[in-house]
Amino acid sequence: MRAVLARAAVLAGAFTAGAVAARAATLPHLRTLTADLQRSRERILATREEERRRLRHDLHDGLGPTLASLAMSLDAARITLACEPERTDPLLAEVRNRLATAVGEIRDLAHGLRPPALDDLGLVAAIESFAEGCGGRVDVRFDGEPAGLPAAVEVAAYRIAQEALTNVRLHAPDSTAMVRLSRDSELHLMVADTGPGLPDAARNGGQPRPRHGLASMKEWAAEVGGNCVIASRNGGGTVVTVRLPVAAAETAAGYHRPSTGKGGR
Questions:
Q1: Maximum C-alpha span of the chain
Q2: What is the mean pLDDT of the chain?
Q3: Are 216 and 200 in contact (CB under 8 A)?
Q4: Pick from 155, 70, 151: which is nearest to 106 by CA?
Q5: How far apart are CA 198 and CA 192, in angstroms?
Q6: Dist. CA 30–CA 247, nearest whole Å
Q7: Is Cell membrane a UniProt keyword of this protein (predicted)?
Q8: Is residue 210 situated within a structural domain?
Q9: What is the rounded distance in angstroms from the CA atom of residue 226 to the CA atom of residue 234?
Q10: 225 lies in some domain
């Protein structure tokens, strides 16, 4: 009996030691993942705040003074109409030209907030329209129903597909590519090409030369709670695999949507 108990104690000690060693080996990996996640969040926050600052600058220092100047010009035209009607037409023509410029600035600001192709064409057709200008052959297909996707998910998917296809055009112009989308509780996006793939360093487990576009794709996915993996595939070519949660984006959209009921304003 003592021998059995001693053997059990030895086994328990070995198991405990193994568990401690496994946990100790896992901790550095967890610390690395936590640090990477923190850096990614910091980049997302910095990018978002920079975009907000740019938008505020464009509205406050660009569009705002333009509209104020137009109001003053209209007042001058009104006074001129009462005193010297013959001089009104040139003044109104100038106001008309400046107003057209202001409309163009507003359109540019709106386009920066959300790609207009998404509203004009929808996600699939917008990707197809962009793919037409990438050269080579790009096959786009959505396995499922694209209607009803949250706006944030649509924007993230479109921008990631756009960046991936731009990389194909720049780095593998003679290759063919395919874009596949499917939807369940998540939106799945894959962009694959037959080009040379990632640099050799990345294929062998090293760190590829940093590219702003690759980091942006991962950050766009992270903004909606998803992830983006970019890798070379067997036989050549690069594959971008993206997972974008739909339910979380729908919840966030509902939370931030203002009330339209009788008590809303």
A1: 118
A2: 76
A3: no
A4: 70
A5: 12
A6: 27
A7: no
A8: yes
A9: 25
A10: yes
pLDDT in tens, 175-229: 889 999 999 889 999 999 988 887 654 444 444 444 567 888 998 898 888 999 9
Q: Report pLDDT for 185.
A: 86
Total domain count, the chain:
2
Q: Following DSSP, what letter does each residue of 72-106 receive, concatenated?
A: HHHHHHHHHHHH-GGGHHHHHHHHHHHHHHHHHHH
**91 and 79 in one domain?**
yes
**Same-domain check for residues 223 and 154:** yes
- Specify which residues 186 forms β-bridges with: 245
Q: How far, in Å, CA of 180 to CA of 189, rounded?
A: 6
Give the mean model confidence (pLDDT) for residues 120-125: 91
Q: What confidence tier does 36 reach under pLDDT thresholds 50, 70, 90?
A: low
CA angle 98, 99, 104 (to 5 degrees): 95
